Amino acid sequence: MASGWGINGNKGRCYDFWVDFSECMSRCRQPSDCVLLREDYMECLHHSKEFQRRNRIYKEEQRQIRAAARKAKEEAEGTPAVTAHH
């Protein structure tokens, strides 16, 4: 990765993030000064924040689908729907 070459011979997708992080590390007083650049670089490599966000969205969609199905079932049975307030 640090060579800058991607899998197809072009510049790697995360190389610019690596350069920014590397430059920061070479001129900073403490490594903690570069924590945000490191996060950007790691996110480019692994997409962990993106996957976490997608999972949260998916879980919320599933929760809403289950709630709507439960409400429809209760209305069909003639019992009042109970809503939970969070």
UniProtKB/TrEMBL annotation:
Any Pfam family matching the protein: Ndufs5
InterPro entries in alphabetical order: NADH_UbQ_OxRdtase_FeS-su5
Cellular component annotations (GO), alphabetically ordered: mitochondrial inner membrane; mitochondrial intermembrane space; respiratory chain complex I
Main location: mitochondrion
Swiss-Prot/TrEMBL keywords: Disulfide bond, Electron transport, Membrane, Mitochondrion, Mitochondrion inner membrane, Respiratory chain, Transport
Biological processes annotated in GO: mitochondrial respiratory chain complex I assembly
Record membrane topology: Peripheral membrane protein
Keyword ATP-binding: no
Keyword Cell cycle: no
Compartments it resides in: Mitochondrion inner membrane; Mitochondrion intermembrane space
Superkingdom, taxonomy of origin: Eukaryota
Bridged cysteine pairs (disulfide): C14-C44, C24-C34
Family membership: Belongs to the complex I NDUFS5 subunit family.
Complexes and interactors: Mammalian complex I is composed of 45 different subunits. This is a component of the iron-sulfur (IP) fragment of the enzyme.
Task of the protein: Accessory subunit of the mitochondrial membrane respiratory chain NADH dehydrogenase (Complex I), that is believed not to be involved in catalysis. Complex I functions in the transfer of electrons from NADH to the respiratory chain. The immediate electron acceptor for the enzyme is believed to be ubiquinone.
Entry protein name: NADH dehydrogenase [ubiquinone] iron-sulfur protein 5
Gene responsible for this protein: LOC100838927
